[in-house]
Amino acid sequence: MDRTRRGRRLLVSLCFLCLAVLLPGALLASPAAGRKRRQAGFDHYVLALQWPGTVCRQTNHCCSSNGCCRSNPLNWFTIHGLWPQYSYGGWPSCCRPTTTFNMNKIAMLKPILEKYWPSLYCGDTSTCFGGRGPFWAHEWATHGTCGYPEIQDEYDYFSTALYLYSKYNVTKALRKAHIYPRNGRKYAVAHIVDAIDHAFGRLPHLVCKNGSVQELRLCFHKDYQPRDCGSEDDEAWSSSRRSHCPRYVTLPQSALGNATEGRLRNRAENVPRAHGQSYV
Question: Where is there biased composition of kind Basic and acidic residues (predicted)?
Fold first, then answer.
C-alpha cells in the first residue's frame, strides 16, 4: 500500500512539473490547495514578491547562487516567500524544530524554482535553532513549517507558492497597465495598487527602498482565496505603506549579469565577503 501511494505521488509530481515547464500558467493545480483544509495556528498567508532590479542594487559580489549575476536579467517579480501571518500583526516562525530541509522532495520543481524563486544573495543564511542553509531552506524552516497541517512538507510549500505566483501574475498585471521596468521612469504608487486591485480584486502591500519598489505582497485567506492586505481604513496599514513608499516610485531594470559581475568585481576588493545574508 505504501509503495502504491508513493508511486501515485511520484506520477502526480511528474505531471505537475511537465505542465509547469511547458506552460507556466498550468501551475493551477496545487496539491496543497486541493486538499480539505484543517485549522492551524495562523490567520492568513502573505505571498511576498521581490523586484530584482531593486534588491540587486545591494549586491556586493557575485557568485553562482546569486540570481543578480545571471547573464540574462531578471525583469520580473520573483518569489521571496509564502508566509503564514497573524491578523493582529506578526507571524509564527520555526514551528517544527525536528524538521530538516529535504531538497529531494522538491528536486522536480528545481528548474522552475531557479527561474521564479532564485536567491538574490550569496552564501548561506540562518535557518532555525542555530542552523544554516540556502535561501530555500531558510524559507521552508522559518515559514513553511508554520503552515502545518495545511502544508505537509517541502513539496506542498513550494508548489503552493508557485501555484499562487502563476495564478496571480503580478508582472503580467502591471504590464497590462503599462507599468514596465525602466530606469528613471516613475510611476504613482496609486497606479500600481490600482492595477493589482483591478486584476485580482484585492489591495496589495508595497515595500520600497530608496524610492524604488522592493517588494509587492499579496494576501490570501487560508483557502487560498485573495484578500486585502489591510485596507485604506486601517490606520496602521496606511501609515506603514506611506512610511515605506513615496508618492512616485521606480521599477529599475535588473543589470545584465556579466556587466554586474564586472562592476562588482572591482568593488569587491575593498568589500569583505559576507558569510551569509539575513532574510525575512
Answer: 262-272
